[in-house]
Amino acid sequence: MAGMVVIYKQPADVNAFDKHYFGTHIPLAKKIPGLRKYEVSRGPITTVAGPSDIYLIGVLHFDDLDAMKKGMASPEGKAAGADRRLYAPDESGIQMFLFDSREV
Amino acid sequence: MAGMVVIYKQPADVNAFDKHYFGTHIPLAKKIPGLRKYEVSRGPITTVAGPSDIYLIGVLHFDDLDAMKKGMASPEGKAAGADRRLYAPDESGIQMFLFDSREV
């Protein structure tokens, strides 16, 4: 499998973020060809030490990195990427990691 | 489900990190009661913009946050946590996020 982990810091306007993320972004992203599973954090995100400054984590799963790259390069993938820049335009508020993974 | 995402920056000594992580830490962590799945990134971790300074990402899955907390508070959970401080003692080199999640 391959995963894309997207980590969003606390947004300035939580209601606007939620409305866009759940109402527009998820439906757009779910159209990306090759997407196998889309998980979203629910409730507070903590660290072992306590609360974090992270608001939401999304994890998108594809069969492998090649499928992920093809999906992201498709019109649907580009639309989802462009949409992300609308509700989370500040790159310093986001971390996004792409990787192949295996179960151990 | 609940996930624990652990993100490790590039270690100073990759060989020592790998030896400890794969040889000692994974076997210890797999004994944590309630652990349902343990995924580890394979190969380079990139961002949409290109290479990252991240070396490895581990994702541990539990049924829910309560099961995760109980697992981490068990002797096996404490042993895995203590072991992590041996191979990755610098807290600034790690991000660790705990959260409930749902499929969308």
Automatic annotation (TrEMBL), chains A, B:
Protein name: EthD family reductase
Coiled coil residues, start to end: none
Domain EthD: 9-84
Matching InterPro entries: Dimeric_a/b-barrel, EthD_dom
